[in-house]
Design a protein that fits this description.
The protein has 138 residues and is mostly helical. The chain has five helices and no strands. It has helices at 5-33, 44-66, 74-96, 107-118, 121-135. It is globular and about 45 Å long.
Length: 138
């Protein structure tokens, strides 16, 4: 029996939520296990707090996507999760300074899933929002 659109969208949201949780766990692991002064993190305490908050956000997002509750519109869900990703990753980037230059790459799968799920101008808005937010950090 083929999957419905809702089933495939839910599966994509689940995969991206799992990816978000794994990336957040890796960032938190780096923050806790590596000497942050040796890799020239500008504000180590804010970096650790930012990665911890991103990890909590990722776990809550994963739990919410995993639950069988009635969800709001797909556009609202994708926008909210992407806004959280942009906020917490921007905090991590600002706290890390030049040492965390590759961190914005983490946003690529979220933006790709937004384009795949929505297939509207909203997906272009998500990409533009991420771009403006990251460019505004410098």
């Amino acid at each position: 029996m083929p999957l419905s659109v809702a089933d495939s969208s839910r599966r994509i949201l689940w995969i991206i939520a799992l990816y978000r949780a794994i990336c957040a766990a890796v960032l938190l692991g780096i923050a806790l296990l590596v000497d942050l002064n040796s890799i020239q993190i500008t504000t180590p305490s804010v970096f650790i707090a930012g990665t911890a908050m991103y990890f909590v956000f990722a776990l809550l997002a994963f739990w919410w996507v995993q639950s069988d509750r009635v969800t709001p519109s797909l556009s609202f869900v994708a926008s909210g999760l992407l806004a959280g990703d942009i906020f917490f990753l921007a905090l991590i980037i600002v706290a890390g300074g030049n040492a965390v230059a590759p961190v914005p790459i983490v946003l690529f799968p979220q933006l790709a899933s937004s384009g795949w799920l929505l297939r509207t101008r909203t997906a272009f808005f998500h990409a533009a929002l991420a771009t403006v937010a990251l460019l505004g950090l410098d």
